[in-house]
Write a structure and sequence with these properties.
The protein contains one helix and five strands; from the N terminus they run βββββα. By secondary structure, the protein is mainly β. The protein has a five-stranded antiparallel sheet, with no helix packed on it. Strand 2 and strand 3 form a beta hairpin.
């Protein structure tokens, strides 16, 4: 949802104190940098966008935002999707033979 460049080091930087983390999220496609707070609660992981630290240099929509509650999904559909994902091989791009 944040239009981060996959695998790009430093896309998300932050620090944590107790059950909260303050994050600087780099939208690599626009150059925009946003600040968010993530808090672990009894209901799940709460994501709250605070604001923009640096405006983007290039055109593009920022979809990093809002307030979200991420919580565990124990439905059969979610367990099935997770099993499928666990069966896939996962390798870094430099581990995949070229050609």
């Amino acid at each position: 949802m944040s239009k981060l460049e996959e695998g790009e080091p430093g896309s998300v930087l932050g620090t944590s104190v107790g059950n909260a983390a303050v994050l600087l999220v780099d939208n690599a496609r626009t150059g925009e940098k946003n600040i968010a707070i993530v808090t672990l609660t009894t209901k799940g992981l709460r994501w709250r966008m605070i604001g923009t630290a640096v405006r983007g240099e290039w055109p593009g929509e920022s979809i990093i935002g809002g307030t979200w509650m991420l919580s565990e999904d124990t439905s059969e559909h979610a367990r099935s999707v997770l099993r499928d994902l666990e069966e896939l091989s996962c390798r870094w791009p430099d581990e995949i033979p070229s050609g």
